[in-house]
Amino acid sequence: MLFTDRADAGRRLAEALRHLEKEEPVVLGLPRGGVPVAYQVAQALRAPLDVIVVRKLGVPYQRELGFGAIGEGGVRVLSDDIIRRGRVAPEDVEAVQRTEEAELSRRAERFRAGRSRLPLDGRTAIVVDDGIATGSTAAAACQVVRAQGAARVVLAVPVAPPDAAERLRTAADEFVCLSTPYAFAAVGEWYEDFSQTSDDEVVSLLSQAASGTTVARSGTRHGPRTTTAHRAGDWEEVRIEAGPVRLVGDLTLPVPGGPVVMFAHGSGSSRHSPRNRAVATALNRAGLGTLLFDLLTPAEEADRAKVFDIETLARRLAEATRWLRARESVPIGYFGASTGAAAALRAAAYPDADIGAVVSRGGRPDLAGRSLLSAVQAPTLLIVGGADTLVLDLNRQAQSALVCENRLEVVPGATHLFEERGALDRVSTLARDWFTRHFHLLPA
Predict the structure, then answer these.
(1) DSSP letter (8 states) at residue 232
(2) Cα-based angle 135, 137, 142 (whole degrees, multiple of 5)
(3) Are the beta carbons of 49 and 253 closer than 8 angstroms?
(4) Residue 256 above 50 pLDDT?
(5) 60 vs 223, higher pLDDT
(6) Alpha-carbon dihedral of residues 134, 135, 140, 145, nearest 10 degrees?
(7) Please, where are the H alpha helices in 370-422?
């Protein structure tokens, strides 16, 4: 199913939600891209519209692994299991929350332009986004909405990958998704127009909904279209034999026989990660192949202890590497994020690894073990955000154990997820240049 734009997706989604109109629901859009979809749903159901502003609380040295979430009204949802397994100290919990509370308040005030948050006590709340990649934010939003007093929570999206859709069915009382395509690479590929939604557009739509005015059906934006580099024909979904499990991946080969960078991530659904996709696109444009795949199966991802099982992750990466070499016989590099960076370096240290280059983004290379770090022969680039102080210190310690060619690049002002303007672009450029130089695609 292909949508013209977010307004079209919203109108189609509204038809699938008609049965909820009699419940007089509140429609909540996840900013930013979910709000144009939610606006159409609210108009069709004659329901009030608001944003659901949620901030995930991430483990300090692995922010993509959430130990909880916060929402407005002082709502905090914590996972005691992840806090315990991740050894997150109480003072770290409070420090992360204080940081995220400031950003939550800023965004809520910006989007609502002085209006109060709509009360949810006893109401049916429909949480809407423009699509699902990993589903972690949507799941957190459902938890927050329930904690804010909603009697019934419905999660509604136009498109989601099958594995994420299956996990999300337990996150809400009802899950409505128009399309769960098997060959899913990124949300944007299912839209003809997936132009970025601006803060100003969110503010405008919420203001119009509050005042009772409507947007004409023909009044869609006509900005530049954004497409994904991973449409059908450019990439292939593959099944990778890794010991007793089969891992799902997306393989892109822009140059037959050219080098391929394998992406290692410590949590599941890494092949849908927008950050990994952005880096992969930059590498593809430079002529590098990419294999984005999940080191954990969906069932294993539910056991968060697996995220920290570096030996298992490294072994599977090595097995996937052997699978790729048998299939394509190409030079191979590793790109690791968070605990996946430790897995990449540990796998690169294996005697028969023969890895051309390694890049770590916001990684935990220290978890690979000092003795194994000293055995890595592949040129290694460590990229860390300047504001990610704990991880920066751990990377400096790990760098001291490396005897191979290595470099530590600090992206000024960037936090763990490189969400700041231009930060991820800098990561992509650094990774591209490192791989192309060491695979001899550019002059040294």
Answers:
(1) B
(2) 95
(3) no
(4) yes
(5) 60
(6) 160
(7) 370-373, 389-399
Q: CA angle, corner 345, sides to 343 and 351, nearest 5?
A: 110
What backbone phi and psi angles, to 5 degrees, belong to 201? Answer: -70, -40
With CA atoms as reference, report the closest residue to 411 among 397, 424, 395.
424
Kindly write down the DSSP assignment for every residue of 257-306, as one continuous string.
T--EEEEEESSS-GGG-HHHHHHHHHHHHTT-EEEEE-SS-HHHHTSGGG
> Who's near 392: CB < 8 A, 6+ residues apart?
384, 385, 386, 410
Instruction: Provide the pLDDT for residue 24.
Output: 93
Match 């002059």 to its residue by tokens. 443
What percentage of residues in the chain have a pLDDT greater than 90?
A: 52
pTM for the whole structure: 0.60
Closest of 365, 368, 364 to residue 350, by C-alpha: 368
Which residues contact residue 235 at a Cβ distance below 8 angstroms, ignoring those fewer than 6 apart?
185, 250, 251, 252
Closest CA to 4 of 30, 28, 31, 40: 40
* Polymer length in residues for the chain: 444
